[in-house]
What does this fold into?
Amino acid sequence: MARWAERLAGIFPWPGRSTVKRPTGPESSNPMHPIEEIRVRLDADMQKLETLIADGPGAGPSEGDKALPKQFEDLKVKYTGKKGEISGLLRSMGTLAPEARPEFGKLVNELRDYADARFSALQAKIQEVEIAGSLSGSSLDATLPGYRVPAGSLHPMTQVREEIISFFQGLGFEMALAPEVDNDWYNFEALNIPPDHPSRDMHDTFYVDDKVVLRTHTSNVQVHYMETHRDQPIRIIAPGFVYRVDNDATHSPMFQQVECLVVDKDISFANLKGTLFLWAKHMFGTETTMRFRPSYFPFTEPSAEMDVSCYFCKGSGTLDGAGGAPGQPCRTCKTTGWIEIGGCGSVDPNVFGKVGWDPEKFSGFAFGFGIDRITMLKYGIPDISHLTRNDNRFLKQF
Ligand code: FA5
It folds into this structure.
């Protein structure tokens, strides 16, 4: 402090005039330097607030405690605000002799640092007082047991969908999406299903108008993707909602499918089988076996339905080994030992032609599964409508 006073004494003339006398000491008759004067007043003001804080909160926050933050802010603005006293010192620097200005600037900056440090320390103390006051003034009993917040979980179909997606993403498949309201071209014609084709009857379609439909399957993604990613290798997975005029225990008018499409040079039916075999074991367990049944889809050739061995009776058709009475028939697979998962096949050359690809150069495979059905299988859900009824008693089980 003594050194500080010496440095202050070196700065003449003082900017502004101070009439404040030193409180004590041999120089008490000399007026203080303005920098020193501000520091002395700042110390005194701080001291007042610190005394208020030291008195501490009583049984509840006192009026004094409540006023603390406001008093603190006022004080901060008064000294360190834009128009505060410390800035005022800098503004008055122009009245000094040029050679005194650098030292004066340094001293003012030191004063500002000093003020900032004291204000930060004081603010921390005020926050402590506020917290202590609010705790002692409220009826909060921290020893009482807390409220249990019910934990939510993902819908079973979401869980199954995520599991399928993450498996195929792990094999390098990319996500792709296509519209749910689509042109006849994407849902039917480009997939080798002309207007008079008998297979249209298999899809009980919701028509928006003559040319626009609610897509009946996710296979429309094949056409959209091949049209926009011409002549390059494709490996996509495309989940989404689809719609059919269909309603019973295993059919819903709105359901979810997941489609995969792989296109490159020399993609074979064996690649399709290997990929699906890997997936079935992952999804339903390593004991699962699968089979392909010859089938027909206009957009794949050859085509197949993929079945997996029944999850419940382990492919035996009866529940003997699965907790049932001897010979008790397995209702899930209707005693066949197999459950149909979806359709698949090699991309039909006509489809490549429709989207402008050369079928001589490229080959591919595709498959489409019903996510609702897989969920029913995985969890033994007897009626598809449970999945969309939003009954909490059902949903809580997952
Ligand atoms: C198709 O939809 C073809 N697009 C699948 C495909 C894709 C074949 C790529 C070849 C290449 P399908 O109509 O069989 O195929 O339906 C596929 C699956 O959707 C069915 O196995 C079933 O799991 C599910 N599914 C069909 N209709 C319904 C429905 N109304 N409610 C719930 N799930 C259904």
